[in-house]
Design brief:
alpha/beta; seven-stranded mixed beta sheet; three-stranded antiparallel beta sheet; serine biosynthesis (chains A, B); pyridoxal phosphate (chains A, B); homodimer; 14 strands; O-phospho-L-serine:2-oxoglutarate aminotransferase activity (chains A, B); about 30% helix; disordered N terminus
């Protein structure tokens, strides 16, 4: 894509580019460290750039040919977090190792996972009687683990299904308990969320399962039901840490990291401690919450580098002022994009009921559907990628997670207006 | 550790340090790329260093305060692979994204996972009738997945247990089939491997399970049994890609990546295709090989960055000349270390039968066990870390996987001799 630029090995950029040392105070920039083994044949040229590096106000996401990536997950990450990871990749904070090389039982990695948990607890204000587990296998693994841990085979559980992911969770649970679909938005193409008061819950249901934000259909719970029977369990993969949540209302919150808080390969489970310890006999040891809780997520080797990256993201969210501030930014971005759709006089369309439109995933179609392919293609030329909608719903989808800058949504909206003007 | 050096923000090092562009030809060094948005206020200083960067023969593992890390896993990775990952972290090959941000269904990541599989197939000469799966959850998840996929609950399978990991696999399988322990080295503290011809296999056994290299006990199969009934299944987590293997002798080979081929969080399963498709009804969808094989490991979001890192390691192993060359290096390292133990007149001791000593994990104790703590502590001062033995066996353990340079073993052996001279 930028091959002409890439072929130039011009070091001037490093010296003028303020991003390289964007987190200079916190990062150690180990790869710039004097080397004991540097070749004596090459005369060093000394250039101190610390002041220069701190002087520029250019935000980290600009420059270096960074694109705006609207993928639904894995998704864009904060540029400053990536820069910090880059600076520490080869030698983490003077340890002489990459995080990828550290024993998961060594003091270096223990400090990383403990800091990650502590920052997450502070962000979500997680009560003491909840365990935080860093696991593997994505939300899909939890679709099995939850009934295996909470139910006997004959126990009933309830599902309110507002999109494809909730439906997958429902189907997987059929292997391990007796789930009941007490509401499904399928006939309505998953465009709404029911009023919970009107629904009849199964008597003796062990839990009520919801998907807090449906990544494919762009439907998001704005408040949460209070189940009369059992506990509330929520898949928050695609809106985790995008706004404050009252954790005490839930028995289990679980989320794949690869939308808002890190790379793929890490799954976070927040579970009330009294729910742990009753797994069915057929539960694989790696799906048993008791094993992971007792071992602080270190029963076997965890996905160490992914947990480290999540930790950097949590640190960044704390530095932004916490989830109240993050939510404000997300509301502003969502408003900008939904308004653009509303004000297009039907040129662009979003099918979801206004009150439950997702602030994370915005699917939209065009009145003239034959233009959609061109829209997506032209957007790529403008360095906005992954705008194609999920194959099951078609059209377009803009995922605008925490790390999507406001400027990215502005650019998309400007492009949408231009495209409309050209094709109206 | 190197805080004095770290506080100096002297860019001259980058210019003189040959490691920074160690893989200049292959890597793109994206973070050095001219930025479209560079600040106009800062005058660029242009310095072309490509020739300088390529000129030095200093190996990548030297310098920059890199330590020798003898951890059993996660473990040391090739320094040049880490340098390449560093150079691509922020912007992968001009894509404008980090690998951590890429959609797993986008063309960029598809090229990464396909190249990784293709290089692994070439390294191990994997026949066409085998699937290669990139999964999550470590070998421990496979301890359940294998019987769930290969057996009905009443099927018998055989285990030859030569260490703690094989024992864990045996115990987990009891949930899903009828395993039989046809040999265990436990009473002998796991120091040997039986002659398979003398063992009686269960009639109708679906498979024979072995752990090809026991990480904790340092016991390694040098050739493999031919089961009379069923197929051979091997956990190769800790010697995967350390030497050539005739894959066609196995039904399943599986391995966590975090010893020889990448960071933790990736599990590789190589399985003969005709074994796929008969999972028990209670199998979690994420443990069903059919789902992963049909979807080329992309049923849900895979651990993308970990797979990318494995791909870089595979590329490096190919560049080294393949596994025959890698095995030669490993034999040389193992010989050096075991000879030092043998020649210590009992000062150092390895309990394992000579013919099956592991070339990957070398546990050893001291005649004067009260000196062991001091040995480990003094080694850290010499920048050799993670030499403490597993808590279940005590003493020391040096893990000398593919990425441990010969110089690391030389340094350890010199240290051992010095230590002995001081305490003899």
């Amino acid at each position: 894509m930028a091959s002409k630029l890439a072929s130039s090995n011009n070091y001037s950029l490093l010296l003028q580019n303020p991003h390289h040392n964007h987190r200079g105070a916190a990062g150690t920039n180990n790869h710039l460290r004097p080397s004991a083994a540097s070749s004596p044949k090459i005369k060093p040229l000394s250039l101190r750039c610390a002041t220069t590096a701190a002087a520029s106000p250019i935000p980290a996401h600009v420059g270096e040919e960074r694109i705006f990536n609207f993928a639904a997950g894995p998704a864009t990450l904060p540029a400053n977090v990536l820069k910090k990871a880059e600076s520490e990749l080869y030698n983490w904070r003077g340890s002489g190792m990459s995080v990828m090389e550290m024993s998961h039982r060594g003091k270096e990695f223990l400090s990383i996972i403990q800091k990650a948990e502590s920052d997450l607890r502070s962000l979500l204000n997680i009560p003491e009687d909840y365990s935080v587990l860093f696991l593997q296998g994505g939300a899909t693994t939890q679709f099995a683990a939850i009934p295996l841990n909470l139910c006997s085979p004959d126990d009933s559980v309830d599902f309110v299904v507002t999109g494809s992911w909730g439906d997958k969770a429902y189907k997987e649970s059929q292997k391990y308990c007796k789930p009941k679909l007490i509401w499904s938005g399928k006939s309505d193409k998953y465009t709404s969320i029911p009023s919970f008061d009107t629904l009849e819950q199964s008597s003796g249901a062990k839990y009520l399962h919801i998907c807090a934000n449906e990544t494919i259909h762009g439907v998001e719970f704005k408040d949460y039901p209070n189940p009369k029977n059992g506990i509330l369990v929520a898949d928050m993969s695609s809106n985790f840490c995008s706004k404050p949540v009252d954790v005490s209302k839930f028995g289990i919150i679980y989320a794949g990291a690869q939308k808002n808080v890190g790379p793929s390969g890490v799954t976070i489970v927040i579970i009330r401690k009294d729910l742990i310890g009753n797994a069915q006999g057929i539960t694989p040891v790696m799906l048993d919450y008791k094993i992971h809780a007792e071992n602080n997520s270190l029963y076997n080797t965890p996905p160490c580098y992914g947990i480290y990256m999540c930790g950097l993201v949590f640190e960044d969210l704390v530095a932004q002022g916490g989830l109240e501030e993050v939510e404000k930014k997300n509301k502003k971005k969502g408003e900008l994009l939904y308004n653009a759709i509303e004000e297009s006089n039907g040129f662009y369309r979003n099918p979801v009921e206004k009150s439950v439109r997702s602030l994370m995933n915005v699917p939209f179609t065009m009145e003239k559907s034959e233009l959609e392919a061109e829209f997506i293609k032209e957007a790529v030329k403008e360095k906005m990628v992954q705008l194609k909608g999920h194959r099951s719903v078609g059209g377009m989808r803009a995922s605008i997670y925490n790390a999507m800058p406001y400027e990215g949504v502005e650019k998309l909206v400007a492009f949408m207006k231009e495209f409309q003007a050209k094709h109206a």
